[in-house]
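Bumping with the actual sequence this time:
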Amino acid sequence: MPQDYMNVARVLNLSEWKILTKVLFPAVLPYMMTGIRLSIGVAWLVIVAAEMLTGGLGIGFWVWDEWNNLNVEHIIIAIFVVGIIGLLLEQALLLVAKRFEY
């Protein structure tokens, strides 16, 4: 965040709450949204991998089960499903991030 933002806030004698809500938060929000987008992508990959290892229900378990059954067609379908869901998550977060850009 540029130091000029804080200098202007001091000159205007803004309260700490106003500085936080009107200066700091809007300045860091685009970076926060980028971090959220990156973390959601990694979280999606980790969830699928964890399902492969732990079993139970989910697309990761389905991929692992189909791998053990040598059903390549279902594995390819699952790869596309994982990719499409990841793409949809990314696009949804891009729309949210564009909402908070200035």
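The tokens above came from a reply further down the thread. Residues 59 and 81 are 9 Å apart (CA to CA).
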